[in-house]
Design brief:
The protein is of the alpha/beta class. The chain is built from 17 helices and 11 strands. The chain has helices at about 10-20, 25-35, 35-45, 55-70, 70-80, 115-120, 135-150, 160-170, 195-205, 220-230, 245-255, 275-280, 290-295, 320-325, 335-340, 345-360, 375-380; strands spanning about 85, 110, 125, 155, 175-180, 205-210, 235, 260, 285, 360-365, 370. The longest helix is centred in the middle third of the chain and has 16 residues, at about 135-150.
Length: about 400
């Protein structure tokens, strides 16, 4: 039987506190740490001694909310919706959330079959602008899909724009994704993402601090972001203006000692200005999943070397490249002049020239040598490339 089916006093107290205290309430978190969840809930419910430093006005407001709280009903509604309540100390509780200190959630409402703790161990947050550009949506979807294909869990906020694109990318790749909501997990928000959040619940996990039926507010979106940052090994910001909420996630990740990454965009785009500001600080520039995994993954999970295309002349022996470079761009040159330019002997230069002729780089004209038309075009970076059959690997 699940713990939610037979709640103990500690679990009921935390469900009660999740209804009374706002997410991220550090003063409330301190009461729970100092008094214990059961005692803190009892004081709120019964009007016991109010904690030191709490004004009468605030205490009255909390007491009013406490009178409306029905933890048994919240658990029943959650169970009916296929939602469980996970608390610190449970086997499914992700220990990295404890890094939030007194801002740690009282518990998390979880919808979906997988274990939140196991999934959070190998997860990356992909966040960004709601009103993103096509470029931002493309990058988020590609990152989500590629991370999922490499066995990483993609965590985001379920919002429009970058969040939705990252979730869809992971789902499309048949991978794992987690949506952390700023409302009750039984009431998807935004409503336009009802179908998407339903798919996430079927294939992944939907998580939130707020009890069933609760609605989002601007402040709840902001404090929700600390959970995204704490759950994951690192946060990637795809697009963000200077005042974007996704920057809150990135800064929370930095405070928690998590990796912070940014995907660069056009210097002229206001939706990339916030990302570029992060990159001027401690964030790391990433362009694909391999870059991300190199940072957040285990030792040895390195991104491939970034190199330009291998040109035919790159495959030549160094001596042959020096002789080729010694030929003039126009006209012919005698072997002696070519040898001096290549800093070699005339006999070596002649041997190299015949090698280069067999590969299609040079041709002989009387006693002189000149570059072929294809070699001149390739050297200038023209649109016509030398054919592999002509410019193959050296013999």
């Amino acid at each position: 039987m699940r713990a939610a089916d037979a709640p103990d006093a500690e679990r009921l107290a935390r469900v009660f506190l999740a209804r009374v205290l706002e997410p991220g309430d550090e003063a409330g978190g301190r009461w729970v740490r100092e008094l214990g969840a059961v005692e803190a809930a009892g004081r709120l419910r019964e009007g016991g001694p109010q904690p030191a430093g709490v004004t009468d006005k605030r205490w009255a407001g909390l007491r009013a909310r406490a009178r409306q709280a029905e933890p048994e009903r919240d658990l029943a509604v959650a169970q009916e919706a296929g939602v469980r309540f996970v608390t610190p100390g449970d086997g499914e509780w992700p220990g990295q959330l404890d890094d939030l200190g007194d801002a740690r959630p009282c518990g998390l409402w979880v919808r979906g079959r997988p274990s939140l703790r196991m999934w959070a161990l190998r997860s990356v947050a992909v966040v960004g602008a709601r009103a993103c550009t096509e470029y931002g949506a493309h990058m988020a979807a590609v990152l989500g899909a590629s991370l999922a294909e490499h066995g990483w869990v993609v965590v985001s906020g379920g919002a429009y724009g970058v969040d939705g694109a990252a979730h869809r990318g992971a789902l499309g790749a048949g991978g794992a994704t987690v949506a952390v909501l700023a409302c009750g997990v039984d009431r998807p928000y935004p409503r336009g993402h009802t179908e998407l959040i339903g798919r996430i619940a079927e294939q992944g996990l939907v998580v939130g601090e707020l009890p069933p039926g609760d609605h989002p507010t601007p402040s709840r979106f902001i404090v929700r972001n600390r959970v995204i940052a704490a759950l994951t090994r690192g946060t990637v910001v795809v697009e963000a203006a200077h005042r974007s909420g996704s920057l809150v996630t990135a800064r929370a990740a930095q405070r928690l000692g998590r990796h912070t990454m940014g995907v660069p965009g056009p210097a002229t785009s206001g939706l990339s200005a916030g990302v570029h500001e992060l990159l001027r600080g401690d964030a790391v520039l990433v362009t694909d999943a391999a870059d991300v995994i190199e940072l957040v993954g285990d030792m040895g999970e390195l991104a491939p070397d970034r190199r330009g295309p291998v040109l035919p002349r790159d495959l030549l022996d160094p001596g042959a490249r020096r002789v080729l470079a010694a030929l003039p761009g126009r006209g012919t040159a005698p072997p002696g002049a070519i040898a001096r330019g290549a800093q070699t002997t005339p006999d070596d230069a002649i041997a190299r020239l015949y090698e280069l002729r067999s590969l299609g780089y040079v041709e002989r004209h009387g006693d002189g040598w000149k570059l072929t038309r294809q070699a001149v075009t390739a050297a200038r970076g023209g649109g016509s490339r030398c054919r592999p059959s002509v410019f193959g690997r050296p013999g």
